[in-house]
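Lab notebook page, bench 4
Experiment: in silico fold of construct C2
Operator: M.H.
Input chain length: 114 residues
Purpose: comparison with the prior construct
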Amino acid sequence: GAAGTPTAGPADSASFVLYTGRMIYDEGAMVSRTASLRGIQRKPFVEMCDVDVKRLGIVDGDEVMLSGNGFEVRLPVVVGDITEGAVFVPYDQEGLRANRWMKGPDPVVEVRGI
């Protein structure tokens, strides 16, 4: 599809621009060494806009496969205020280091419903 527009594939999948950023509580040194802070840390997720979620035939809370750069992971979907054609994955969450997808200036990931 055009730049910024997800391209649908044969198995209800599409390519998206990947955005990532830190959450207040992540796998940094302070949280990873403090049991009480680990307890409030969010589990990894992928945020998508409602238009893209509907296009893939999934709903808020469904799990999807996110893949790119030779790395694949299963994540729950959170419908949020993000632009169409893009996804957000928190950086450095327990069990998921989003930097594995960060190759080149414009990382792209594939999202596939499961």
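Observations: The mean pLDDT is 78. The radius of gyration is 14 Å.
Next step: discuss at group meeting.
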